Amino acid sequence: MSIGKVMVAGAGIMGSGIAQVCIEHGISTLLVDISKERADKGAANIEHFLQRKIEKGRIKPEEKEAALKLLKTSGNYADGKDADIVVEAATENMEIKQKLFAQLDETVNENAILCTNTSSMSITQIAGAARHPERVVGTHFFMPVPAMRLLEIIPGILTSEKTVEKAMEFGQMIEKVTVKAPDTAGFLVNRIFEPMRNEAIYLVMEGNSPEDVDTAMKLGCNWPMGPLELADYTGLDTLLASMTRICEETGDPKYRPCPLLKKMVNAGMLGRKSGRGFYEYE
After folding, report:
1. 11: CATH
2. Cβ atoms of 117 and 140 closer than 8 Å
3. Fewest CB atoms within 10 Å of the CB: 116, 174, 246, 253?
4. How many CA atoms within 13 Å lie on the side-chain side of 89?
5. Is 160 among the residues known to form the active site?
6. CA nearest to 6, candidates 44, 32, 38, 45
7. Which range marks the domain in which residue 65 is found?
8. pTM score, two decimals?
9. Residue 185 domain-assigned?
10. pLDDT digits (tens, 9 = 90+) for 66-123
């Protein structure tokens, strides 16, 4: 597969991470958001993280400069009309994603595949907003994108096999390990992992400290990051929305969100993005 250009739609933490991985693997990438200012902020984050990799001795300064030359930003999705692959990384909201896919399907060239980065939403439902649902596929990246090797590939009911193959090849190009996951709420990883994070929150509600819970899982299960640290990193609102969606779709009470999680989200304690969650941040 020849990929000349990737467009990443959404310049937040996920979108900028996906764009960073693409440019580090030599792929010309357009990072787009609803305004150029937001896209430029995402590009600034990419430059920051590349600089940190230099400081840690993981890349050389010239590698950073070569990667950044492949990155462009825009506030107009139409600027990516010549992209071979579009990766949508907008917020976890069905209405927003469907609106964006209806627009992208009309904008990009007919041979491009349209990928949605979602942790639990129906690929079939998102694709239903596009005129050509056969070229829509789920690509669930994990945070932080440059460090996490897994990429879940999720076909919708109308996704063509050719689209799935292209998505798999794209994952291999950026050195991700790809697995094919079912189009059910939570896919593979979150169906298993979110009840575990939810149970960690129940332990805090019962009086255990977040530090003890995270230390126990890191040292007892060899996790690089504790479940509550990770919940803060990804956003407690994102976790709540995902668990609620899985619970509603499966009807299984093990996915019912912990009351403490709901209270924290209602209080605006969303984790790193708000400065306070299970921990406090600068």
Report:
1. 3.40.50.720
2. yes
3. 253
4. 28
5. no
6. 32
7. 5-180
8. 0.88
9. no
10. 999 999 999 999 999 999 999 999 988 899 999 999 999 999 998 999 999 998 899 9
